[in-house]
Amino acid sequence: MSSDGLLKALNDSQRYLDIVHKQHLSKSEAEWLVETTVSNFARHYNSGFIEYRKSVAEAGDFAAVEWTGQGATFKDALGRKYIDCIGGFGLFNLGWAHPKVVRAVQAQLEKSPLPTQELLDPLRGMLAHLLAEITPGDIQYSFFVSSGTEAVEGAMKLAKLYTRKSGFIAAVRGFHGKTTGSLSLTGKAIFRRPAMPLHNNIFHVPYGDADAVEQQLNIAREVGNDIAAVVMEPVQGEAGAIVPPADFWPRLRQICDEYEVLLIADEVQTGMGRTGTLWGVEHWNVVPDIITSAKALGGGVMPIGAFMSTPKIWSVLNSNPFVHTTTTGGNPLACAAAIAAINVTLEEDMVEQAATKGEYFIARLREIAAHHSDIYTNITGKGLLIGQHFVDDDIGYAVSSGLFKRGVLVSGTLNNSRVIRIEPPLVITREEIDTILNRLEDTLQELHASISTPSQPLQAQSSSQLADRADIAVA
């Protein structure tokens, strides 16, 4: 590394820090930030994000670069305001930068941001105690990590240690993360195939089909495939807010007990009130053996995940506390955020908010879908985890981009636009929901007009077209 290169890094880092410390940007500063961000992503992070992010393709001369937010709305660097209907895919249950969570993190930052690794960290103990109080059944112990996929990895390891078995049953189209172990559970070829071979002894069944789970367990018993656990999302998020049949989770509990395998509920997205109960499995009064959590657990301020279980299962970790460790997972800042997030969730009755607002939102969306049956195929979901299902990707893309142009941020699933997820902060107001619905209706009316006009065929822009738009923004 040359001295000139290091000097440039020093100067660039100082300019970036100057931006970090600014609360407000001038127009020229904001335009510089947008251009620099697009350039940095394209040249140093991942150019694919520039090609596929609708915020770049649909925001005019300057891309939408996030800057600040409050409640269910945020502003980009240029001051343009949006209603957030993605919520960080479940991060922002409490809204953007909830003041109580921010204050807790700030207070802890002034004392100690990271643990010694040797002494006992009081906040880690506090958070574990709180989770024991709010999780179903006799779940009592927790281990903290920094993400949802790490939580799933830990749950898999715990299940293997306890059962001394290696196999898992998961669901087609399920999503559990993208590190190697959790990716082996994820039920989508587009994510799995490039990293094959993955964890062996993994079997996928149709989501919501308890008979298929039992059949797979029976086959495993017959041929000697030892199954440690069944891993499912209470409601499938990435698949499009898919709600299982009413008897699915109760039957899973019964089947797992009968075949002596563990039941793992992946609550990374559904937990902390998202679906209208504190934990998704509570819709069916089921107590799993292991629960994973992340996303909203950090209150939308810090990254934190957890896997939690009963004293009996946790005994394999208690006997050797160093069999599973992490240097930064569950650090004091993250635990402070999670403690505050639990407090706010209970104090502001986020669970009831998600239930009542979700019921209203879903009912209104179903009315809209019924009036546009040539565009919609279904509306699914529970609470404020909602899926709009369209006839094809092009329609979904057009709706998503049309809403963005009208100041509403939504998103397709990770690999298609046929399903548009609605996952706003739970603090979203009824007025904001009505605004979204009105703007959706406007988008659909415009869409119908474009379909009926031969000179304006409905089609998504190609990756090359989006890249061209990104190049214009950088120029």
From TrEMBL:
It is an enzyme of class 2 (transferase). Its EC number is 2.6.1.82. Pfam families: Aminotran_3. Coiled coil: none annotated. GO terms for molecular function: identical protein binding; putrescine--2-oxoglutarate transaminase activity; pyridoxal phosphate binding. Its cofactor is pyridoxal 5'-phosphate. PROSITE patterns: AA_TRANSFER_CLASS_3. Keywords: Aminotransferase, Pyridoxal phosphate, Transferase. GO terms for biological process: putrescine catabolic process. PANTHER family: AMINOTRANSFERASE CLASS III, PUTRESCINE AMINOTRANSFERASE. Belongs to the class-III pyridoxal-phosphate-dependent aminotransferase family. This is Putrescine aminotransferase. It comes from Ktedonosporobacter rubrisoli.
